[in-house]
Structures are given as C-alpha cells and as structure tokens.
Amino acid sequence: MICNPNSTSQNEALFRQVLPSLREVEGLTMFSRFTHYPGHAEDIVKGLTRDDYDAIIAVGGDGTVNEVVNGLLGKVEPGKDLPDNLPALAVIPTGSANVFARALGFPPTPLEATHVLARMLEHDSRRRIYLGTWNDRWFAVNAGFGLDADVLSRVDRARENGFSATPLRYLSVSVRAYLRARRKPPRINVHATAKDGSTLEVSEAPLMLASNTNPWTFLGPLPVVTNPRNSFDEGLGLFGLSDLTGIHGLVGMLHLMGADRRRWLNKVTKARTIQFDDAQEVILECPEPHRFQADGESEGEFEKITLRTVRDAIEVFAPQDPSPPHKRSARQILRDLIRMS
C-alpha cells in the first residue's frame, strides 16, 4: 500500500477507519510505504512483479495513480510487449477529484471506497483497462494542452501557498483562466485517427482535451461529461472548442463545466464543439510552447505532444459492471454534496 500524505483528505483518523476494513480480508498481508517527494510512488514500484506483490493499493488522488502506473509499466515504447506479470492496481481515493477511482465505479469517499475494495479483494474481482500515453509516458484519466493545464498549474500554486484544492477553487481558477484564454487563446493544431479509420483535422483550436474515460473530471460530486461514449474499454475521447469568444464561446465553456447537463443549449454549442471518439493516435501541435497536463498534474510546456491508446494495458481491482457516475440520481448527487461539504 502506497500512501500520499499530501493528498487532500488523507490523515491519521482516516487510516484508523480504513485499515481495519482491509485487515478483515482473509489472507491479506500488507506492506505500507508513504511517499516523500513528487515521483516517489513511481520510484517505489519500479521493477516490481507479481512475484513481489499481488497488488499495489494507491492511497491518494489521480496523480498518485499516475505515478504508480508509470512506475509499473515503465517508459512507453511503441511495439514493445507489455509485461503480463505486473501487480494489479487498486485505489483508495483521497485526492480532490479522484476521477480514476470514481470512473471505475468506486464511491467518492475513502471509507466507502475501502469497503467496496475489500469486497473486490475477497472475490478477486479484476478487469483490464485501456490506458493513454503521451510521448513516452502513460496517463490513466485525461491530458490536454492549454486551458486545463493552466488551471491545474495555478491550483498547484495555490496549494503550495497553503490553500486547499476545493471544487470552488477549481471553478474560480477556471473562470479566470477562461478570461485570459479569450484574450490570448492557444492555437492547437490537431490530427487524430480513430479505430475505424476516420480522421480529425483541426487548425488553431483554443481548447482541446483528451480523456481516457467518462466523465472527463468532477467538480465535487458533479461529473463533467465531454464524450458520453468514452470508457476504460475504448480509445481516447477528444473534446475541443473552435472559438472561445462571444456568447457561443461562453456557452461552450458552460457545457464543458457541466452546466448544460440536459443539453438545452446543444444547438448553440454544436457549431463550436469538437468531439471525436475512440481515437488511437492524436498529434497536438502549438506554434509556441504551452502548458500540458496529464492526470491532473502539470507536466511543463511543450510545442508538440503525441497521444496514443493501449488496449488492456493494466489490471485493476474494480466492480465488473459499474453504474456510470454521470447517470446518478439527483438524490445521490445531493448526498455526496452534503458529505463533502
């Protein structure tokens, strides 16, 4: 079990509740490590096989999951066979968004998720999922140039100054980033190829996101759905806007942030929205360096990124047939809002 003590909801009290649930799993023996610096989880699991451990339990957010995935799978090399004797991946979500765990079908709170995980461990309930790659590294949830990377960079800066990464802070930073992007939008050129051979060519889009699952992210309990068909069993989903200016650009951003869940504004956003599903390879290019993010972590500035999808890349403990998180009832969403407040 690898624990990130800097994740949003991790503390001693949580472990006093979580550990007894896991210890009740018959035959389970755990060895626990805490991370001490960015990339530490990746270093800890590098080179491990199933002869060492049957499973790695990542206690943290999507960034911790990303580190574990990259440590287990190593550098991306096209054409290289993936190792088939890796430990399976399990997650207890203690981050701010926890997209990976929630998209797999786990509850959003750590204690509830641990109860579900304990049952998965007891029944050895595993499945294989697709993962995305960017250049020579892996991502599990999402990746993108420009606006989303700018938001994450500024939220990280706020956290370094002692502020928590709450949904309200993400929303506030997103609005300011959108206003900046309207004044000086990124110019992202896109070339994508889908599994069925169809292609997407876009010139100078101000916003382009890639997701490995559905939803793209969460604002608190609210799922942000960009590509409804997307899942861990398909290629990458692309979502972009062709223009951020005017009322159409504003409505497009509201759609991205989940404000148009009933799609009443679909006719307004359709002309400015770029959607492409089951992409196998995506090339994103900018005329000048822009921030790039993967799994909610700012990765620096780049002019060109190549994204790909890899089928059945890793084995995870998860419900076999999770109910889609974006189809939860209003009552369930209200319940989660109360619990997270």
UniProtKB/TrEMBL annotation:
This is Sphingosine/diacylglycerol kinase-like enzyme. GO terms for molecular function: kinase activity. Coiled coil: none annotated. SMART domains: DAGKc. Pfam families: DAGK_cat. The keyword Nucleotide-binding does not apply. Belongs to the diacylglycerol/lipid kinase family. The keyword Magnesium does not apply. PROSITE patterns: DAGK. InterPro entries: ATP-NAD_kinase_N, Diacylglycerol_kinase_cat_dom, Lipid_Phosphate_FormReg, NAD/diacylglycerol_kinase_sf. The lineage of its organism: Bacteria, Bacillati, Actinomycetota, Actinomycetes, Mycobacteriales. Its cofactor is Mg(2+). SUPFAM superfamilies: NAD kinase/diacylglycerol kinase-like. Keywords: Kinase, Transferase.
